[in-house]
Design a protein that fits this description.
homodimer, about 400 residues, alpha+beta, six-stranded mixed beta sheet, 26 strands, elongated
Chain lengths: ~400, ~400
């Protein structure tokens, strides 16, 4: 069995890739595996960034009764008619607890319910309390300073659609309506396996992938490194409990590139070898219904293949928009980008300039590409159909920075 | 004592604000309190989003020795001269463990150190292993497929400046260089106090402020609600342990607006009453050296005053850029915004349209403004000097959504 009608790819070890799958075909394979995970109920305090599984409607009117919109004196507006600085109207100061007696006012704080009989709130600036009476220096219209029952939100009104990603102030709105828990899409459980023997170079892929999985809303369900044995790797991939499995390293054409054969041992390899640079040794397949993404071990290539394929699947399973989550900037290319027709390129760039940003293409990393990670502010994706871009071209840069840093 | 040469503001309870401080003056007060907090050492795994307290230089060369940039056969390039499909060069397949013997090749995985004597990596595609020998079908240049010692990064090279906010892939780079911990700016400890008696309306300010403090990198050091007693509120403000204190509610002109007098009881009120709508009852002061920000209780006003003042202080203390952290979008106003000269307006807007975004101004909330929270995608800040903007004006919208959602 192989995905999308493609026959299972051959073993490429010590032979190299005979041909590579277009990026678009790999994305179709990913998209066919995206289904929104089931809902779970969580406390509002944990809602930040989560995706609503169900729409939310207002359970009650807001405000629940006519209330003061500002601090002041609750009055009968008609009783303030004719008041002026030179000829103030004098009313009795009474308690706000009961209904408002005639020729009386009651002090009220913003948000408090209007006493029966009152129909306006006079700001303190337009009155002066003197013992048990209040001098009023200006007339006020009926309804002024009053927030009517249900004026903000009526019971049953639609607040948020399913699929909304919670924004910072959303928990406040929901708490204000008395909602304590919400139904959200379950976070995808991601198993992260680093294939290969422990060697002199410390693992960079684990930390990169943990960060990116968190960014995309996934939960690391399990982590193991130094998996150099084919059978042990196969067993780690096949263990139950994950919504998807990422294997970093040993995806290439070397004799010790055990990740594709390990996947083939316990599942199916749907695609292996993608027309992408870097990241071309990526692959994907299934164990039962669980997608397994094979990522290259070279850190920059691992990052590229994650951004294009694995992140898309994680975001989609978690109910987020599956496309790139990065903020983008239009920028003028400071130098040309040369790319091979037929191969999509994931190219690191550095951004300079404020109002009119310029993107300086960095050299395509030859090795692990960790230097590119230090220097790059983002990346440009050159489609397979293009030979690149000339200097001066206006391009879209996907940014890795998390904040806008506006002045 | 009062901040910035301004005499302590008068008690406004039941009198109203005689005059209000310009937003710019309040921002100057905030900025005078911003100093970067001390450094703390944390594990790389906890680095996401943190701000570097010190610059980081590479502790070692990367790669530490000449290494294979791709999977293939390590060769002496000169021995492949003249190789072709029709007349392959045949070399001995040997072990990669020791130095490379002459007329020999050794299989190498990408990232592995080159054996002594080897000077190029021949991709598997250009060769075929046959038992103990390997047929080579094309010549290769010296250095091809080799990443030279220190080619990516040289020992001592500057990687990140102090003040860099860690990006998702940064921990991978640092881990790859063998760095396990980093020095970051300590997170500001924020005490959050909700002033006022428990009433029929559930508290919305607490959840809003908790979300925003987390967004801006602060840690909630303590939280208390329903503080209706002036002495109890003063005591809660003055307790040691916080880098700053936020008090939400009871900041206005009502008889029960105890927040400003409570602050005056144990510290100083530097400013109270700001030419801002909504959020005009905000104030700020000090208890010892600890800034205390008084925020209005009405949720939308609370949010506005937080975004302008409190968030700025939290971000600055934590080493982030103090300005708005929101991503912005240029947009065409779908309707006019009318604003009062002399008062800055914080106006909710809804965004529609994709490539050419339009911003629909929402009504300025009259009451708590929770409905505006549900409807708004962001806000526009109308400076005090402007009467507003005409329909069709191009404006900058600050967005609350956390993700770009590019397709």
């Amino acid at each position: 069995m192989a995905g999308d009608g493609v026959s299972a790819p051959p073993d490429v070890r010590m032979r190299g890739f005979a041909d590579r799958v277009p990026v678009a075909q790999a994305l179709r394979w990913i998209d066919a595996r995206v289904h929104r995970l089931a809902a779970e109920e969580i406390a509002l305090a944990a809602a930040a960034g989560r995706v609503l599984a169900r729409p939310i409607a207002a359970p009650a009117d807001l405000p629940p009764a006519d209330t003061a919109a500002l601090d002041g004196f609750a009055v009968r507006a008609a009783e303030t008619l004719g008041a002026s600085d030179y000829d103030p109207v004098v009313l009795n100061l009474t308690d706000a607890a009961g209904p408002l007696a005639s020729v009386s006012v009651a002090m009220l704080a913003a948000g408090a319910a209007l006493p029966a009989g009152a129909d306006a709130i006079l700001p303190f600036e337009l009155a002066q309390a003197k013992g048990k009476s209040v001098e009023i220096f200006a007339p006020i219209a009926e309804g002024a300073g009053v927030l009517r029952k249900a004026q903000d939100i009526g019971a049953g009104a639609a607040l948020f659609a399913a699929g909304r990603r919670m924004r910072p102030a959303d928990p406040g709105l929901l708490a204000g309506l008395g909602i304590a828990t919400i139904g959200v899409v379950r976070r995808p459980r991601v198993r992260l396996l680093i294939a290969g023997a422990k060697n002199a170079m410390p693992d960079a892929d684990g930390p990169i992938l943990k960060s990116l999985v968190a960014r995309d809303g996934g939960l690391i369900e399990g982590f193991a490194a130094d998996l150099a044995d084919r059978a042990a790797l196969a067993e780690a991939i096949a263990a139950p409990g994950a919504d998807l499995v990422l294997v970093a390293g040993r995806s290439g054409t070397g004799a010790d590139d055990i990740a594709p054969p390990a996947l083939a041992d316990i599942g199916t390899v749907a695609l292996h070898g993608i027309a992408l640079r870097p990241g071309g040794s990526a692959g994907m397949g299934l164990v039962g219904q669980v997608p397994v993404i094979l990522l290259p071990g070279a850190p920059f290539a691992c990052l590229a293949a994650y951004e294009l394929f694995a992140g898309r699947l994680i975001r989609g399973l978690g109910g987020r928009a599956p496309g790139f989550p990065h903020w983008t900037s239009g920028a003028e290319l400071a130098g040309k980008i040369v790319s091979t027709i037929g191969v999509a390129e994931f190219r690191p760039v550095r951004i300079s300039g404020g109002e009119k940003p310029r993107a300086e293409p960095l050299a395509m990393p030859e090795g692990g590409g960790l230097a590119a990670l230090a220097e790059a502010d983002g990346f440009v994706l050159v489609p397979a159909a293009r030979e690149g871009y000339p200097a001066g071209a206006l391009i879209r840069v996907y940014l890795w920075g998390e904040e806008a840093e506006t002045p």
